[in-house]
TrEMBL record:
Gene3D superfamilies in UniProt: UbiA prenyltransferase (1.10.357.140)
Signal peptide limits: none
Name of the protein in question: 4-hydroxybenzoate polyprenyltransferase
Taxonomy of the source species: Bacteria, Pseudomonadati, Bacteroidota, Chitinophagia, Chitinophagales
Segments traversing the membrane: 20-42, 48-69, 90-111, 168-187, 199-219, 225-243, 255-276, 282-301
Compartment(s) of residence: Membrane
CDD domains, sorted: PT_UbiA_1
Pfam families: UbiA
Domain of life (superkingdom): Bacteria
GO CC list: membrane
Membrane disposition: Multi-pass membrane protein
Length: 303
C-alpha cells in the first residue's frame, strides 16, 4: 500500500497539478473570449459537456507536456534536482514515458470531440511541447517563444469552441505567448541565479499584457471594464511582488519564486478575460481556481 502511495505521488509530482489548473483557466478564458459563456450555462448540458471535454484536453496536453519535460531532463535533474521523481527512482523513465503518451493521447482525443479544428490545435500543442522539451529549451531566444507558443495555442484551443471565433479573436493568443516567453526567459536562472536583465525584459512584457487586457476589454465590452480593473490590479500585484524582489536580489530562490508567481497568476489573467467577455459568475468560477492552485502549489512543485 505504501508503495502504491509513493508511486501515485510520484506521478502527480511529474504532472505539476497546480500548473494544470492554470492551463484549464486558459481554456475557460478562451471560451469566454469566443462568446460561448455570455449567457448562464447552468442547465445547458450540451455546453457544459463541451467545456468539460475541452478542459480535459488541456489537462491531458499540459500534464503530458510537463511529464516529458522531466523525461528529457532526467540526466540533468540527477545533478541539479535529484529529488524529482525520475532521478530519485520513484518513477522510472519508461513509466514516465507511458504516462506522458497516455496524457497527450487523452488530450488530443478529447479535443477532437469538439471539432476537427480544436483537434488540430491540440496536435499543435502536443508537438510544440515535445519540440520544446527535446530541443527548444536549449535555445536562448527560440526556447521561450516555443514555450509561449504552447500557452498561446492553449488559449486558442479554448477560443476554438466556436470555430468562427478563431478567425476574429484568435490574435489574442499573442498575449500568453508574450507572457509565458517572459517567464520562461527568467526561469533559466532559477537554479543558480542570474542578473536583472531578463527580469527587466519580463517586466516590460508584463506591462504590455496588463495594458492589452484593459484596452481590448474596453474596445469590445466597455461596460465590463469596471469588473476587469480590480482583477487586473490583483494580477499586477501577484506578478510584480516577487519580480521586484528578484530584481533587488537575483538569487535562484528569488527568481524561482518569481517564476512560480507568474505561472500561478495566469489564473487571474484568465479571470480578467472571463470578466470582460462573459459574466461575473463565470469570472468567479475561474478565479476560484487561484486559491486551489496556490494550495496545491505548496504540496507539489510548480517548476
Amino acid at each position: 500500500m505504501q508503495y502504491i502511495k509513493y508511486k501515485l505521488l510520484g506521478y502527480l509530482r511529474l504532472m505539476r497539478p497546480a500548473n494544470i489548473l492554470t492551463a484549464v483557466a486558459d481554456i475557460l478564458a478562451g471560451v469566454a473570449i469566443a462568446g460561448f459563456a455570455v449567457h448562464p450555462l447552468w442547465g445547458n448540458i450540451d455546453a457544459i459537456l463541451q467545456i468539460t471535454c475541452i478542459c480535459l484536453a488541456a489537462f491531458g496536453l499540459y500534464g503530458g507536456g510537463v511529464v516529458f519535460n522531466d523525461v528529457f531532463d532526467a540526466d540533468l535533474d540527477s545533478v541539479e534536482r535529484p529529488e524529482r521523481p525520475i532521478p530519485s527512482g520513484i518513477v522510472s523513465k519508461t513509466q514516465a514515458i507511458i504516462l506522458g503518451v497516455y496524457l497527450l493521447t487523452i488530450g488530443v482525443l478529447a479535443a477532437f470531440t469538439i471539432s476537427q479544428l480544436t483537434g488540430a490545435i491540440a496536435i499543435g500543442i502536443a508537438a510544440a511541447a515535445l519540440i520544446y522539451n527535446k530541443w527548444g529549451k536549449h535555445h536562448s531566444v527560440l526556447g521561450p517563444l516555443n514555450m509561449g507558443l504552447c500557452r498561446g495555442l492553449n488559449l486558442l484551443m479554448g477560443i476554438s469552441i466556436v470555430n468562427d471565433a478563431v478567425e476574429t479573436m484568435g490574435w489574442l493568443a499573442f498575449l500568453p505567448i508574450l507572457y509565458i516567453s517572459a517567464i520562461t526567459l527568467i526561469s533559466r536562472d532559477e537554479v543558480h541565479g542570474g542578473n536583472v536583465g531578463p527580469l527587466r525584459i519580463a517586466a516590460v512584457c508584463y506591462m504590455i499584457v496588463y495594458a492589452m487586457i484593459l484596452g481590448v476589454t474596453y474596445h469590445f465590452h466597455p461596460e465590463r471594464i469596471w469588473f476587469v480593473i480590480p482583477i487586473v490590479l490583483l494580477f499586477i500585484f501577484l506578478t510584480n511582488k516577487p519580480l521586484l524582489k528578484a530584481m533587488k536580489a537575483p538569487t535562484g530562490p528569488n527568481i524561482g519564486a518569481s517564476v512560480k508567481g507568474g505561472i500561478i497568476a495566469m489564473i487571474v489573467m484568465d479571470a480578467a478575460w472571463a470578466a470582460g467577455f462573459a459574466n461575473t459568475p463565470y469570472a468567479i468560477s475561474v478565479i476560484i481556481l487561484l486559491p486551489i492552485s496556490m494550495y496545491i502549489g505548496k504540496l507539489f512543485a510548480v517548476t
